[in-house]
Specification:
The chain is an all-alpha fold. It has one domain. The chain contains two helices and no strands. It is elongated, with a radius of gyration of 15 Å. The two termini are 27 Å apart.
């Protein structure tokens, strides 16, 4: 397996994990209305956006 394939698989796995975390935290917030769960979900959303931005940047050919 090439390094770029491994990187793609790891990024995809982390994306799935983060999305599942968001859903879990929002479900907990819906049941309990504890603002910690909502703030935690928003923090994970930021991580997910950063990860997707990184993945997009890695897919673009370098401007050299």
């Amino acid at each position: 397996m090439e390094s770029y394939e491994l990187r793609e698989r790891l990024l995809a796995a982390e994306t799935v994990y983060l999305r599942n975390q968001i859903v879990d935290q929002l479900c907990r917030w819906r049941r309990c209305r504890d603002d910690k769960d909502l703030l935690s979900a928003l923090g994970v959303v930021k991580e997910l956006v950063d990860l997707e931005d990184l993945a997009a940047a890695l897919k673009q050919p370098s401007a050299q």
